[in-house]
Amino acid sequence: MEELKLCLMIDACDSLDDIDITDEEYYELLLKNKDRLILALSSGSTNTLSERIVQILKSVDEYGDATENGESPLLKKLIVNMSNELNKESEYIQAVNKLEKIFNDYIGPEKYIQITEDRGIVKFHSSDETHKIGALSSGERHLLVLLTIFVIEGNRRNLFMVDEPEISLNLIWQRKLLPLLSELAPNAEIIVASHSPSIAKENSNYLVELREDMGMKNDLEETVIAAMMCNQPVILVEGQDDIKFYDNIATLEGLSVGVQAIENIADYSEGCEQVCNAMDEVETLIQNDNRLKKYVMGIIDRDVRQFLNNLPSKNNLLVLKY
């Protein structure tokens, strides 16, 4: 509290510019903040100025009357600025409490973080021991940094750009992440670069196609490995127009899968033949790592090859019946 009092006095004195506030607004401010100001200014050692301000604040009644206070422009400016600094301090405390709650929902229920005046610590419900923030996993530290930025800056910025926010996050938190960030920064535009099918599926209305000339496509191996790491299989379809159809089917069946158009994979273009070629490459990947088998599938139309008796027969390739 002594440090808070010192900060209030210094910051208030450093900003004694003219203030634009009516008498009515000023007295409303006095009534709202006088108890907190008195507590802050009365703690620890005092001086003539702080004692005088406390005396004046105590004289303010329920109607905001304080004759001496109202007749002193300098004192009026000082109290207004101190009130503003006190409110900033209150906002900071609320932000810290909010950060603790959100982050502890993620790392709980066995452990939790506690943020004090000078440090953050990790504690376990089953023991009295405390640990430094460095005891968190890399994914937990990554999330803590990201949430701290959004909790503190969420209402102050108009734009956030985040690269791969899904790093080390489990699927549940990948799905929760963007809605949470949007809640923390309700008036900001949030641009995210992500390889996560879970994030893409939960926010499909906001996806932006990366054109081929941007040179930012994943190759097939990266796509399949990402599907395995996220534990969310990927379905490769003939074109962009097919994505919504298969997404709707997956949703109706309660399946957690990602759907990608083959032309969004590096070195491939749209069409049935391209999906077939991709499945040839997938067979090679599966030979090297059999775990990939359950994380990728291609789907193609039956088309004219049915009549030519030339339907492809490949592992992990589904040819529609009709």
Report on this structure:
The chain is an alpha/beta fold and 322 residues long. Helix content is 49%, strand content 12%. The protein has helices spanning 2-14, 23-42, 48-58, 67-71, 73-107, 138-153, 171-184, 197-202, 220-229, 243-252, 272-288, and strands at 111-115, 120-124, 130-132, 159-163, 189-193, 234-237, 258-261, 296-300, 317-319. The strands form 3 sheets. It has a 4-stranded parallel beta sheet with strand order 7-6-8-9, sandwiched between helices. A 3-stranded antiparallel beta sheet has the order 1-2-3. It has a two-stranded parallel ribbon with strand order 4-5. Helix 7 (171-184) links the parallel strand 4 and strand 5. Helix 2 (23-42) crosses helix 5 (73-107). The longest helix has 35 residues, at 73-107. The radius of gyration is 30 Å and the shape is elongated. The N and C termini lie far apart (75 Å). The relative contact order is 0.06. Mean pLDDT is 79; it is low at 1-16 and 66-70.
Provide tags for this entry:
alpha/beta; disordered N terminus; four-stranded parallel sheet; 11 helices; 12% strand; three-stranded antiparallel sheet; 322 residues
Low-confidence stretches: 1-16, 66-70
Order of helices and strands: HHHHHEEEHEHEHHEHEHEE
The shape, in one word, is elongated
Report the radius of gyration as a whole number of Å.
Answer: 30 Å
> How would a textbook summarize the main sheet?
4 strands, parallel
Tally of strands:
9
H/I helix tally: 11
- Strand order across the biggest sheet? 7-6-8-9
Q: Helix proportion of residues, in percent?
A: 40-55%
N- to C-terminal separation? 75 Å
Mean pLDDT: 79
What portion of the residues fall into strands of 2 or more residues?
A: 5-15%
Instruction: Specify the structural class.
Output: alpha/beta
